[in-house]
Amino acid sequence: MLVQGQSFRFDDVDEPGDASRVRLPHPEILQTLDEDDILLVDDGKLRLQVTSKDSEGVDCIVEVGGTISDRKGVNTPSITIPISPLTPKDRADLAFALTQNIDWVALSFVQRPEDIEELRTIVKSSERPFVRLMAKIEKPQAVQDIERIVALCDGIMVARGDLGVEMNPEDVPVVQKTIINLCRSQGVPVVVATQMLESMIEAPTPTRAECADVATALYDGADAVMLSAESAAGAYPEEAVTMQRRVISRVEADPQYRKAHDALVGFRLLEEKSTTTDAVTLAARQIAGAISAKVLIVFTSEGTTVLTAASLRPNVPILALTPNEETARALSLCWGVYARLLAPQTFDENQVFSNVLGAAVDVAVDYGLLSEESDVAVVTAGLPWGTPGASNVLRVVPMMGPDAWPE
Q1: Most buried residue among 107, 153, 297, 369 by CB atoms closer than 10 A?
Q2: Mean pLDDT, residues 296-318
Q3: What is the pTM of this model?
């Protein structure tokens, strides 16, 4: 038991710890620490400040005491550790995972853009070079360079629990909103995770504050919200998932939710720098709302246009049609997207476009997205096929059939 004001030492001596010292088997951390740096133990329950260091370890004074035991996490909020976040075990696990038909890899404790670049290099040289990468943002150092990290990733996870250990609690909501806005502007899916319904680890119902927290992430524009200990180790996993779904459904039915996202699109309309794909996708979103279309159908090769469409939060579902299985599976993470694999011959350059539209309508009917003859879909595509992010076609397609379709 450590008490406030006492001295305590961290070193790399392979001996059992006691009330005055403990082994920290990470020499790279001990070497990087300097006087006045902070060490947080067991998710921040204990706080110690470095008073001096030598070749074998660091001496500290206990600022916040408590029980210390083995296998507890140690956070270093005041330093950037100059090592790879990928341990030898991580590398072995990653090598195995990349043989298992996975779609995403998430990297924990990202500190620098170089961490993502290192992971990308490993994935690119594997049997699945197209696997998407997600950075878990749980270190203040990553927040400081978040724009570069987002630019290098296919997805971002805001891990508020760990962020709250190393940052002031009042800063976490601001950081969450900032990261969500950045990801939305870049068309990068963003997941908000950890401590969402924390009380449901032990209780069958959440607090009202927790429900409000989940709702805030949705109003801000998160693509997904994720449970952690609530479903992994809690006593009420099914109830926690059900409650998360109930909050999502309620918020997305709220007119204020739609107004908030419509306002964001209004700001996007004022942006000066837009690509043809941005313009076509934004127009499709506006048209779908104006004519009360039932679905926005997007033909895509690698998912680029779908990401743009999802970031605009249309008021209809997005049906992504692609010849690539990897794209269809990876897009499942994106807001509002139903992804469907179509036969590659559907995208043959010699195909009559009306036949392709017919295939798209058939899929929408299969999903129940079109059901009445008067139902209308808005369709975007890039011709010729196969050029990522090259949408240049926009059609309004009635369900009733080819005779009613525009030439």
Answers
A1: 297
A2: 93
A3: 0.87
